[in-house]
Design goal:
mainly alpha; 13 helices; globular; disordered C terminus
Amino acid sequence: MAAALLANVLYSGGFVLEKRALASLPEVSIRRPARLLRLVVGSPLWIGGSLVLAAGFAAQLAVYRTLPIAAAQGIFVSGLVLLVLLSARLLGEETSGRERYALGAILLALLMVVLSLKEGGTGGDTVGQHAPSSLILLVCVPALAAGVWLYSSAERNARRRHRRPTTGVEYGVAVGLLYGVSSLAVKGVSSHLTADGLGGAVVGLLRSPYPYLLLFTGVFGLVMSQAALQRCRASLIVPVCTTVTCLFTAVLGTLSFGEQLPDEPLRLALRVLGTVLAVGVLLAMPKHDTAPQEPFQAKELTRP
C-alpha cells in the first residue's frame, strides 16, 4: 500500500516536471525522434522528471509483487486527483466544468471496475504470477498497433490548417494503450523476479515476451508521450491516459494472469457498467479547447 501511494506521488510529480520542461523547448515531433531525444536529454528539468518517473516504475514493480492487479489499479487511480492539483498549482492549467465532471465520472467508473474485481478485502485477493506467452502477445500486439495507429491519426489531424486547439483525448487514449501493455509487462517481470535463483530468473525472463514489450513501449511511449505533453494540457491528457491504462490492465490483466473473476451478479454488473461508463465518458469528452493553451506566450506579446 505504501509503495502504491509513493508511486502515485512520483508519477504525478514526474509528469508535471516533464511538462514544465517541455514548455520551454522548441516544438518536438514523433517524425523526428532523434531531435526529440536530443532536446529533452539536454534539459536538466526534464532529466529530473524522468528520474522521478523511473523511481515510480520501481515502486510499481514492488506493488505488483504483493497486490493483485485490480487492487493495485484502484490505488493508482487516486493519483489523478494529485495530478490535477499539481497541474493547476505548478503549470497554471485550468479544467472546465465539463472536464471536471468527466474526470469525476472516470474516477467513479474505475472504482466500479476495481470493486467488481475484488473479492472482499485486498488480503483475500489472489495474486496471479504467470500468464501464457501466447495469450500475452494476443492481448498486447493488437493494443500496440491500435495505439500507434490512433496516435498517427491524431498527428495527421493536428497538422491540418485552421484546426481547432485539441484537448488531447486521442493522444491520451493512444499513449494509454501503450502504457497498458507496459503495465502488463511490468507485472510479468515482477512474477519472474520471484523465481528461485537469480540465474534462473534472468533466463526465464529473457525467454518471455516481457522485456521486449517493455523495450518497445519504453521507446515509443517516451517519444509519443513527450510530443503529446507538449501539445496538450497535462491535467487532461494524463488522466485520460491513466484511465485507459487502468482499464486495460485491470480487465485484461486479470484475465491473462488468471486472477479470480467475479461470479456474483452485483460484481459482474459493476464491471460491465464501470467499463461502459469509462468508455462513454472518453467518447463524450470535448475534443477541442475553446482557446489556445498558451497563456505565458500571450502575456509576453502584450508587453510594451
